[in-house]
Automatic annotation (TrEMBL):
It comes from Streptomyces antimicrobicus. Residues 42-153 form the Protein SirB1 N-terminal domain. Belongs to the UPF0162 family. InterPro entries: SirB1_N (IPR032698). It comes from the Bacteria. This is Transglutaminase-like domain-containing protein. Pfam families: TPR_9, Transglut_core2.
Length: 261
């Protein structure tokens, strides 16, 4: 199977593997990415996990050990400039550069700790992503973007934080949304927007509006016939709940087909 097919199969598995999904995602951005590169990234995560001390117990001990290793000894962290790089959303590149967006650095924290048996989870804060250890009620939370700095428990920092850990597919969709936002600011990167949308639509649960976004992107790229077909498909999906939106989509499909003349 292709990596895209592997992504779709893993996303629909009973317990999706977050690291694998992130690596399959990265293959879309790099035509040279192959099974060897995937295996090397997995082995690097295993190697990092093997550097953690044995006998850790409790969320605070795990948080301190993982952050001391990754943020301290190895220098994983983020900078404002990382928001300008597609590489900051690609797990193999984050492992090599030790730089990335908050959510990708959090994936590294989570996957390294998980491989070592740590009680770890991700927390999707508004506009940020952090990592928790132990029982979520204890609020032992660190910020990988800041090198693993501990977050306080006061209202200014965590009042809006969800107690429910982010699920792997939610994390992957958020990563894909970040990639789309990066590409949207760079019209010459419409191909990146397209593959990010294609992967998003392979997730078993996704907003129906992604179909519309993909259709509009195809039209903007000059792929009028394909875009019109997508608009019609979207109209069929939303018609039962929003007939007006369906009518607008069908009108846009007609306009796209007119561009073929």
């Amino acid at each position: 199977m292709s990596f895209r097919e592997e992504f779709a199969e893993e996303a629909r598995s009973e317990r999706p593997d977050l690291a694998l999904l992130c690596l399959y995602l990265a293959a879309e951005a790099d035509p040279a990415f192959d099974q060897r590169a995937l295996d090397e990234a997995q082995m690097e995560l295993d190697r990092l996990a093997g550097l953690l001390p044995y006998g850790l117990s409790g969320g605070r001990a795990w948080a301190a050990a993982v952050s001391e290793l990754l943020g301290g000894r190895l220098g994983f962290h983020g900078t404002p400039a990382d928001y300008q790089r597609l590489a900051s959303s690609l797990l193999p590149q984050v492992l090599k550069r030790r730089r990335g967006l908050p959510i990708l650095l959090s994936v590294v924290w989570m996957e390294v700790a998980r491989r070592a048996g740590g009680p770890v989870y991700g927390l999707a804060l508004p506009g940020h992503f952090v990592v928790g250890f132990g029982d979520p009620q204890e609020r032992v939370t660190v910020d990988p973007f800041a090198g693993g700095a501990a977050l306080g428990t006061g209202p200014a920092e965590l009042a809006a934080a969800p107690l429910e850990p982010a699920r792997p597919l939610e994390i992957v969709l958020r990563i894909l949304n970040n990639i789309r936002a990066w590409a949207a600011a760079r019209p010459e990167q419409s191909a990146v927007s397209l593959w990010a949308l294609d992967l998003s639509l392979l997730l078993p649960s996704h907003p129906a509006s992604l179909r519309y976004d993909r259709a509009r992107l195809l039209v903007d790229r000059g792929e009028f016939r394909e875009g019109a077909a997508e608009l019609d498909a979207y109209a069929g999906i939303v018609h039962p709940v929003d007939p007006a939106a369906a009518v607008r989509a069908r009108n846009e499909a007609k306009a796209a087909r007119a561009m073929l003349n």
